[in-house]
Amino acid sequence: MDKIEKMLDFLKSKIDISPETGIILGSGLGSLGEKIENPTYIDYKDIDGFPVSTAPGHKGRFIVGTISGRPVICMQGRFHFYEGYDMKDIVLPVRLMHLLGVKNLIVTNAAGGINKDFNVGDLMLINDHINFMGTNVLIGKNDERFGVRFPDMSYAYNPDLRALAKKCAEAVGVEVKDGVYIGCTGPSYETPAEIRAFRVLGADAVGMSTVPEVIAANHCKMRVLAFSLISNMASGILDQTLTEEEVLEAGRKKAEEMQKLIIKIIGELPNV
Ligand code: HPA
Fold it and tell me: Model's pTM, two decimal places?
């Protein structure tokens, strides 16, 4: 038995529901985890062979339970390429979710706004991405348990789920923008010249996560929905510098709206 199957057995031994939706919570957005009902917590450090987040103050656990009555598995604390993890480790949780039977993946992140019509605190529904990480998580021998050698990425961000998200956003009175996410490795932020170049390429927001997980999720045919919270305007856009407090405050306010929206969406997901 290989390492992922052992992890799967361990997770199954800890939970008594079959999650249908996976959620990955981005930086500063972990509080949705507190809204999960009947939660079971599984710390990453208790899963043999699982990567452990080194960032201080990072929770690093799965929460399994229900949201709007639907079974979910949530990652509170994700792994970033800039932390030094292998791409394969970054997507291991997505693959575990797939083996657990998860069909929908909801991903959130904090991102820098490139589109000049965006403002700090905006919520962007990701409609597509540009992989600018210089590598691809699927490089290497293809594991047929997960998917085909050359997976299609034409609908990487599921159009039905995006339409549902827009309908739900209207219903709960949350404004969402729409745009393309460009994934960079970090950890340095971009230069103003890079941001100008990314705008020409068609990107609306920039961040250091999400792309590997979304590729792995598409590989195993999960339906993906993803949101960026615009936590700052990207390098070189604003003349004045924003204070960190302002950015955090915008994030706090909007994180709650994002939670409300995600809870509504989960309640309305079609049965799979
Ligand atoms: N650049 C890259 N990643 C980010 C940013 C940014 O401006 N903001 C939040 N994550």
Answer: 0.95
**Ligand 1 geometric centre to CA of 110 (Å):** 7
**Mutation pick for ligand 1 pocket among 188, 189, 248 (CB with most ligand atoms within 8 Å):** 189
Half-sphere exposure of 139 (CA within 13 A, CB side): 8
Contact 208, 187 (CB under 8 A): yes
* 10-residue averages of pLDDT along the chain (272 residues): 90 96 87 93 94 71 96 94 94 97 96 95 97 98 95 98 98 97 95 96 97 98 97 86 62 84 96 78
From the CA of 240, how far away is ligand 1's center (Å)? 17
Cβ neighbours for 37, distance < 8 A, ≥ 6 positions apart: 65, 66, 67
Which is nearest to 66 in space by CA: 98, 30, 40? 40
State the closest ligand 1 atom to the C-alpha of 207, by its place in the atom list counted from 1: 3
State how beta strands 61-67 and 37-43 pair.
Answer: antiparallel
CA distance linking residue 19 with residue 40, whole number of Å: 12
Q: Which of 82, 123, 206, 210 to mutate to test the pocket of ligand 1 (most atoms within 8 A of CB)?
A: 206
Residue nearest to atom 10 of ligand 1 (CA): 111
Alpha helices in the chain (DSSP H): 3-14, 87-99, 159-172, 192-201, 211-219, 244-268
Site of tokens 């210089």:
134
